[in-house]
Amino acid sequence: MSIRKPAVAGMFYPGDAASCRREVAHYLEQVPASQISGPILGGVVPHAGWSYSGATAAHLYAAIDPAPETVVLLGAVHRWGVDAPALYPEGAWRTPLGDCLIDSEFAETVLGQANGAVVASREAHAGEHAIEVQIPFIQYRFPQARILPVAVPPTRPAIAAGEQIAEAIRSLNRRAVVIASSDLTHYGPRYGMAPAGLGEKALAWAQANDQRLIDQAVALHAAEVLRVAAENHSACGAGAIAAAIAAAIACAGKLGATHGQLLHHTTSHEVLPMGQPSDFVGYAAIAFLA
After folding, report:
1. Is the pTM value of this prediction over 0.85?
2. Which CATH superfamily is domain 3-289 in?
3. Which pLDDT tens digit goes with each residue over 187-219?
């Protein structure tokens, strides 16, 4: 069996099982009572180190109920050479909490009907952290669930990939959620983006820049997410978000109109402030609902 070993355990999140469980439990315990207004079909979570983004991600994981059979994890692409949505086809992903199994039947179904909209590639996931940092949350919250990791570039084919994932969910009658892993605006000299300078004006500018992307995600406008992110540099995983939206819309089917709901929005500066706002990243948790 192919085992994808952890690449960022001990850096982005704890490297031992006890600390992983303790930290995930802490984040989940801090989430307020759910105000969700419908069944959760998917959503968006951030993927920075847990000390920055774990509390935000927990807002979505805490709200998902009932437990899914499969969690489709759509990840941002941070490396060159991943030109198409690429799934990890079989085996397991290992974390300090053990091995999380791939839903290989789901993977085969997606590949069999996607007509090239999704490809199989273990290499696309080598060294990537966007999906890996989500898996201990899934192992803790939904210990019986399997996963389908898919790396999704921020290009138009992301929408077709999401639709094919939804088709596989329907054809297999899977109880599944589709979660996009993306951070938002990367602001500051470190990121080569500081149009409002430094300080509180910079923080307000970045928050507004995030909000333009969040508004499109909440409205379930997949193509607009891709456009707004490209124009405003407001998401590193715009393809993952667009694919999750497309999947949520297609999965809804007979359930009726769908909508999004912002659960939490912050920045790394607000989580762990160090002097005046200078270099920081936006994080949001969003639920896609039927």
Report:
1. yes
2. LigB-like (3.40.830.10)
3. 999 999 999 999 999 999 999 999 999 999 999
